Amino acid sequence: MIKIEDITGALSCTEYNKNTNFCTEPVKHVAASDLMSEVLVAEEENLMLITALNTEQTIRTAHIVDALGILLVNGKTPQPGMVRLAEEFDIALISTKKSMFESCAAVHSMLNGEND
Amino acid sequence: MNIKELNDKLKFELLTKCPDSEIKKAYTSDLLSDVMGNAPDDSVLITIQAHKNTIAVASLAGINAIILCNNRKAPEDMLPAAESECIAILQTGLNQFDASVTVARALDLCS
Amino acid sequence: MIKKLIPVYENQTPLVVLELIQGHKISEIMSRNVVSVKPDVTMREVKLMMKDRGISGMPVVRQKRLLGIISVEDLLNALEDGLMDDSVEKHMSRNPVILEEQMPVSFAIDYFENYSFNRFPVLNESKELVGMLTDRDIIMHMIKVMNGEIGRLEELAKHGHHTEIGNVIRRYAVVQNDFKNAGKASSEIKALLQEHDVDRKIIRAAATAIYELEINQVVHSLGGEIVCRISDDHVEVLARDRGPGIKNIDLALSEGFSTATDWIRSMGFGAGMGLPNIKRVSDDFRIKSSESGTEIKVIINLPEDS
Predict the structure, then answer these.
(1) Which among B32, B72, B73 is the nearest to C265, CB-wise?
(2) Would you call A34 and B34 a contact, using CB atoms and an 8 Å cutoff?
(3) What is the ipTM for the molecules in this complex?
(4) Can you give the pTM of this predicted structure?
(5) A4-115 adopts what CATH topology?
(6) I need a surface site. Which of A71, A113, C50, C219 has the fewest CB within 10 A?
(7) Which CATH superfamily is domain C168-301 in?
(8) pLDDT band for position C5 (50/70/90)?
(9) DSSP letter string over C202-260?
């Protein structure tokens, strides 16, 4: 079971918000997109969002789809207001220097390794 | 690996002519400014941004192929623009995450 | 947040009051017998007209076109400066703030709150002057409707019927290009539905629809409002904006189609999924659009409590 905590470690992430489920709830699905309407199509539970979009709308979108957390890529720093909103909605917010492509490959192999 | 070899592995739908360019890396993004600033040379771009401006940005950034995810239809003016810039356009029903994973395997870029 | 002077948008505002201000159009409550003057009339004549009719302002009109407004204040200034033989045209206020007859009464209330004017000219779609609206018109109309409604409630109470309770109404103003505040409506409604133990999938559907409607107004409209009504068996969301309207609704409803600019895309929107997403998650979806605005009404059913 891969938690946001494990992804934080594997991708050398900076932690901006540790939610209550940070170390307990498993990530089961991943959506990677910079366009938020695309993310809203997701219907899976235990979702993690990978995006380069660092605006408050990222948090709001994650909140609507009940995502566990957001992985910001390309070393993006959250815009002011994002962290506060992530705390309010209890959503994990971490940031990695890797690109979205590299993050997808890395997260996928973590999730898959677990199935083997 | 050239585009044809890559797509033999991916088996995505090729919407344009297939130029004989190399693909060394891949970049996933839907933000064109991000693509412009960060996409590596000789790369394939994985995106849902199916419109003409994507070609202009890809050409500036040294991108040789574009994969349109979620079966996004290319608008009419996009394909001729791509061919005139020698950029291949591929289409897949996979989303950006799954397409990225598939491309990473095909290019042997898995960590 | 500026404190509203008129306390009708509070969360606890009763259904009937909101119906009253949102369900009625300005054309229904304005005065149609407009006393207007032509631009070449003298200020002296204007003084007589106002005195005779006991009014404090008049529109200045040439062939149904509104040129300006002349008020008692303008008259006093002219009197003081001894310019009573001047034409109205020289003393009127030009480019007056106008209302349109198709706007809901809620717009008029906002205008009275935001501007210090006592009256607004009302134009039709061809930009012709068709009426005037004063705060008096609004009060008279409200009293009339309240009489009817309270009479009805008294009748109901007499017969021991229960009136509808558990209705919640929330109204949100949406400002053009205001990405900062977009999403507040959906967050609030989501929280409300969670309090009522609504199924998660249904909450997600409602939040998605409201969010996309907010984003649509921020990105594509000149601004508008979103009204959410939660009743026992459904959530109704009414999104109305002030234009410029959707040119081709069928095209806008197809996935991937977008008129968004690169700037909007850089904000993470314009994927061409907004309207398709709203339609997908709703049980009933209605849209109408003209140059003066787009109106989308969405219903999401709430299944009976298990």
Answers:
(1) B32
(2) yes
(3) 0.94
(4) 0.65
(5) 3.40.1390
(6) A113
(7) Histidine kinase-like ATPase, C-terminal domain (3.30.565.10)
(8) low
(9) HHHHHHHHHHHHHHHHHHHSS-EEEEEEE-SSEEEEEEEE-S---S-HHHHTSTT----
